[in-house]
Amino acid sequence: MTEIRDIFVAGLRNAHAMETQAREMMERQSERLTDYPDVQAKVKSHLAETEGQMKRLEDCLAKFDESTSSLKDTAQSFIGNMAAMAHATADDEVLKNTLANNAFENYEIAAYKSLLAMCGPAGADNCVAALETNLHEEEAMAEWISANIAKVTTAYLQKQSRAAA
Fold it and tell me: What is the pLDDT of residues 127-145, one digit of tens each?
């Protein structure tokens, strides 16, 4: 049981670091989405959800008398900022971010599904509700992104056409 518990705790720490990376990326992206107000509003809304997800993960860790990993959080924060900066230099930044966000949301969904599968064996049934909430928020964001890829792409094309005229 201790080994399974340790694996679960490591998974919670990894998820917290993952959300730290997501927060950094969304903070940078939201600053640069003024030409796409619908996307900007959704990113800001999901950024607030991400803060709640981080708190729920911290609460789950506390139930095991554990805390987040400063090293993992710092590394993922750096990675999130670097990813956002890399896209910021591209003319098609909004497209690159949309595609990357789609992939990242699906990564987060997989991470929460894995953690939920560990809850029973790890004796962490008291974390199920929090992890399900996080999962549902990520699924909703992934669905929104997927449903709006064509709209964002079309808006980008129109913006480029106006700039070229």
Answer: 999 999 999 999 999 999 9
CA distance 53 to 104: 15
- What are the angstrom distances between the C-alpha of 85 and each of 25, 31, 41, 82? 9, 12, 20, 5
Q: Tens of pLDDT along 91-110?
A: 788 999 999 999 999 999 99
| Element containing residue 91 per DSSP (H, E) | none
Helix residue spans in the chain (DSSP H): 2-31, 37-63, 70-88, 93-122, 128-164
The predicted model gives 42-64 an average pLDDT of: 97
Confidence of residue 25 (pLDDT cuts 50, 70, 90): confident
Q: Which helix (H) or strand (E) holds 67?
A: none
Centroid of chain to Cα 88: 18
The rounded distance, in Å, linking the Cα atoms of 94 and 152 is 8
What mean pLDDT is reported for the chain?
Answer: 88
Q: Are 121 and 4 in contact (CB under 8 A)?
A: yes
- At residue 78, the 3 state secondary structure works out as helix
| DSSP calls for 108-149 | HHHHHHHHHHHHHHHT-GGGHHHHHHHHHHHHHHHHHHHHHH
